[in-house]
Amino acid sequence: MQRTLGYAVVTLLGCFAAACTQEVGGESGEGEGDVDAVTQALSDSQFAAADFGFVGATWDWAGRGRLRNIELVVADWACDRKPVYGYLEYGDGYGWWDRTPTNRYDYSDCDLGDHTTYTGLSFSTTAGDIAYVFPVVCLPGIKCVAGSLSGRNPYVP
Question: What confidence score (pLDDT) does residue 41 get?
């Protein structure tokens, strides 16, 4: 499976700046069969966008309480000399929510063509299941904006 977050970020950055709507992604090629469907079901992606910044994430579900191969892209659009940061919020599907402990920053300051990419990240918790995930983009001391909820973790009943 090819990860296309970089393409999605460029497309979404361009569309967000131009106020357009565009579907990002692709279809599986012919002959890939069930193997590709299983791989796609074990991976997910989501983004959060605001007038001050963007956070996009892809990850692989690796069990009931574990994410691996996390790629997090953070882009600062604020032009205020304050770095934008992002993180992932997660929940068990029954009302319990928590967040990853590390804020990931982009210090580029108002450069639509520049962003910071964090790759090879992983996260696990023993506090409960990770059934859903969504990214959050924050302007320090001002506000945070949450992205949409991911699909349900296929390992969590």
Answer: 56
Say if strands 84-91 and 104-106 run parallel, antiparallel, or are unpaired: antiparallel
Degrees to nearest 5, angle at CA 53 with 52 and 57: 160
Q: Do 76 and 83 form a contact (C-beta atoms < 8 A)?
A: yes
Each residue's pLDDT tens digit, 2-25: 344 443 443 334 333 333 222 233
3-state helix, strand, coil in the chain (%, to 5): 15, 40, 45
Query: Among 144, 119, 122, which Cα is nearest to 3's?
Result: 119
Rg (CA), the chain: 16
Domain 5-20+34-146: assigned CATH number: 2.60.40
Amino acid found at 48: A
Angle at 29 between CA 1 and CA 40, to 5 degrees: 35
Which segment of 33-42, 94-103, 130-139 scores lowest on mean pLDDT?
A: 33-42
pTM of the model: 0.75
